[in-house]
Design goal:
Layout: H1 2-26, E1 37-44, H2 52-70, E2 75-77, E3 83-87, H3 91-157, H4 163-222, E4 226-227, E5 231-233, E6 237-240, H5 246-260, E7 276-277, H6 289-299
Parallel strand pairs: 1-2, 1-3, 3-6
Antiparallel strand pairs: 4-7, 5-6
Length: 302
């Protein structure tokens, strides 16, 4: 009997408080800025691959976006609170996963192309140096051949060379033959370098072509500005459907927290409460003048 009376009294007490708050709200004497919205985690689909601790951390950051300018504790995490933040996995996050996978492929292709380019530059430098040496050696060889032939012609006119001159000519002939073999080896080395460079060029062109195709695919699928349907405030809680990483999750949560504060969409594309995720600075998420003006108007703050 006593326990029942206590529960009944507690329920009545809460009903009285709720009725009083509603009356104050109707009289514009109480606003969302005068109360704290307590929330807790609800359904968290594991396919989002984010821990509860990380979610709470981002939620705290999203709270702070509003609270630091309002200087009020308008949001607070409370275990078991009826207002739930849910992470519901559907085709939107599946699309994000596909986009992230495509991004990883693009990064890998960029890395491959960079490696090929470096290898090409290295081999090209060797080729240019080898070619310059070969061209110089060819010129020297041709000059020696020309001089050798001139000597042969001279001694032929004179009916033959003396024995010592003849021996010198034989030595020069052998030297020229050896030099010719060396030049042929250099030529083959240069040809091998050219083939290697051509193969690398083909490989790089194929990689670049593959990259461009994937970039086009990415633009077609993910290149447009994303309307704020990654999350939803439904009056009873917030449902998160899509995010890429912690920074844009923070923006989505801050946006939905704004709706929980009764703030509608504003016109500035840089604002948190703009209807598109477009020009907001994800590295420095903060309220714009339009965001502030909207919440101050709701809360009667000068």
């Amino acid at each position: 009997m006593i326990l029942g009376g206590t529960i009944f009294y507690a329920q009545k007490s809460e009903e009285i408080k709720l009725g009083a708050r509603n009356m104050l709200k109707k009289a514009n004497l109480l606003t969302v800025c005068d109360e704290t919205l307590y929330y807790s985690l609800g359904e968290i689909d594991p396919r989002f691959n984010i821990s509860n601790a990380d979610i709470k951390n981002v939620l705290a950051q999203a709270e702070n976006v509003w609270e630091k300018d309002l200087n009020k504790n308008v949001f607070e995490y409370k275990e078991g609170a009826e207002f739930k933040v849910n992470f519901i996995f559907d085709e939107r996050q599946q699309r994000t996963v596909e986009g992230n996978n495509l991004n990883e492929q693009l990064d890998k292709l960029e890395e491959i192309q960079s490696d090929i380019s470096k290898e090409y530059q290295t081999i090209e430098a060797i080729y240019q140096k080898t070619l310059a040496t070969y061209q110089k050696n060819i010129k020297d060889y041709e000059n020696r051949v020309e001089e050798f032939n001139a000597e042969i012609k001279k001694w032929n006119k004179e009916g033959g060379a003396p024995e010592d001159e003849y021996e010198d000519l034989k030595k020069e002939q052998k030297a020229l033959e050896k030099l010719q073999e060396q030049l042929e080896a250099e030529r083959k080395k240069i040809n091998a370098l050219v083939l290697n460079l051509n193969e690398l060029a083909k490989k790089e062109n194929k990689t670049v072509g593959n990259y461009n195709e994937k970039v086009q695919t990415y633009k077609e699928k993910f290149g447009e500005s994303t309307e704020f349907n990654q999350g939803e405030y439904n009056g009873l809680g917030i449902n998160i459907y899509q995010f890429h990483e912690a920074t844009d999750l923070k923006l989505v949560l801050a946006h939905e927290f704004g709706h929980a504060l009764e703030v509608g969409h504003v016109e500035n594309p840089s604002s948190i409460m703009y209807y598109l995720m477009e020009k907001q600075d994800l590295e420095n998420i903060k309220l714009t003048g339009e965001d502030l003006g909207a919440i101050k108007g709701i809360c009667g703050i000068e």
